[in-house]
Design a protein that fits this description.
Layout (H helix, E strand, L loop, with lengths): L1 E4 L5 H13 L3 E6 L4 E6 L7 H6 L3 E5 L19 E3 L2 E3 L3 E7 L6 H13 L4 E3 L17 H14 L2 E5 L6 H7 L2 E4 L7 H10 L3 E4 L6 H12 L6 E5 L17 H8 L4 E3 L1 H5 L5 H10 L4 E5 L17 H17 L3 E2 L1
Parallel strand pairs: 7-8, 7-14, 7-15, 8-9, 9-10, 10-11, 11-12, 12-13, 13-14
Antiparallel strand pairs: 1-3, 1-4, 2-3, 5-6
Helix pairs in contact: 3-4, 6-7, 10-11
The structure holds phosphoenolpyruvate and manganese (II) ion (MN).
Length: about 350
């Protein structure tokens, strides 16, 4: 259920409606748009007295949201969510690029990549310190040492950092280092982790589960939003299909579908989406053409010897070439690249 306020409703009127709703035992989520304010009600709707609320000053109408996701829906917030971060505006006109190695492997390789992407105009560096690997025998990441390396690289280069968090109890530690918390495909339905990331108040990038529907992704988003953490972005990173020619099947449809269903920024990961660096540029260009708000791309100085995901990592020089191409694609769809 949402309450749509009249155009020009005053702060006092909005405040009175919020108090009333809270008094009825609901949690009120406020979406202040340029034109109207919408108040989202989360709670047991049997307690609602629709007529009383509808009669209050400044209220235009009450609308039932039939979809199972509420705070993520465009009904609740018609305007795109824009997340300003380190000189970029994720979800704005710019297409935000986040790039770096799959895993943090050491200070020097991280610095090499960081300077290369910075020179290409990128503002956000990726790198996992905790790696959720399919095999327990694969490199699991450097842990806290990896976070320390990210902190040093951020300090030296001024790049913001996105890094993955894999367990709820780790959130406070990772949140001290990260500018964006990444929740990986294997954890999309780790509800304790979603709650913890929501509570942290940090920007979150939530990846679609490799076997999850778009609606399930939005339901997981709802967990984070329910903590009034609205700095959330969604990431399409490929799903499992019968196809074996590529590591995953990047669901290009998910981009315009999500843009229709939700106000949240949509980021695309063509690296995990394809699994092969040779395919990454084409799919990255397609994602921008299809309306992605950003890209998460794996870049490694020496992919042949990478400790994880080498086969899908671009070398810095190829990445720089790709950025130049992406600028032209972005221009064709009225956007720019940052
Ligand atoms: C990653 O970004 O390196 C990663 C592990 O991604 P995903 O969760 O999409 O597999
Ligand atoms: Mn990876």
């Amino acid at each position: 259920m949402i309450i749509v306020m009249k155009m020009g409703a005053t702060d006092k009127e909005i405040g009175l409606v919020v108090s009333r709703v809270e008094h009825l035992g609901f949690k009120a989520h406020l979406s202040k748009g340029e034109e109207v304010t919408i108040i989202g009600l989360i709670g047991d709707k049997r307690k609602i007295e629709p007529h009383v609320l509808e009669m209050m000053d400044g209220v235009d109408k009450l609308v039932h949201i039939l979809k199972p996701f509420k705070l993520a829906s465009r009904d609740f917030k018609p305007e795109n969510t824009v997340i300003p971060l380190n000189g970029t505006r994720i979800g704005g006109r710019e297409v935000t690029i986040m790039a770096g190695p799959c895993a943090v492997e050491g200070l020097q390789p991280m610095l090499d990549v960081a300077w290369a992407i910075k020179e290409a105009g990128v503002h956000i560096l990726r790198g996992g310190a905790y790696k959720p690997r399919s095999s327990p025998y694969s490199f699991q990441g450097l842990g806290e040492e990896g976070l320390e390396i990210l902190a040093q690289v951020r300090e030296q280069t001024g790049l913001a950092v996105i890094t993955e968090v894999v367990a709820p109890e780790q959130v406070p530690l990772v949140a001290r280092y990260a500018d964006i918390l990444q929740i990986g495909t294997r954890n999309m339905q780790n509800y304790a982790l979603l709650h913890a990331a929501g509570e942290s108040g940090k920007p979150v990038l939530l990846k679609r589960g490799m076997m999850s529907t778009v609606e399930e992704l939005l339901m997981s988003a709802e967990y984070i939003l329910s903590h009034e953490n609205y700095r959330l972005m969604l990431c399409e990173r490929g799903i499992r299909t019968f196809e074996t020619a590529t590591r995953n099947t990047l669901d290009i449809n998910a981009i315009p579908v999500l843009k229709e269903m939700t106000h949240l920024p949509v980021i695309v990961d063509p690296s995990h989406g394809t699994g092969r660096w040779q395919l990454v540029p084409a799919v990255a260009r397609a994602a921008v053409a299809a309306g992605a708000d950003g890209l998460l791309i794996e870049v490694h100085p020496d992919p042949e010897n990478a400790l994880s995901d080498g086969p899908q990592s671009l070398k810095p020089a190829r990445f720089v070439q790709l950025i130049e191409q992406l600028k032209r694609v972005a221009e064709a769809v009225d956007r720019s690249v940052q």
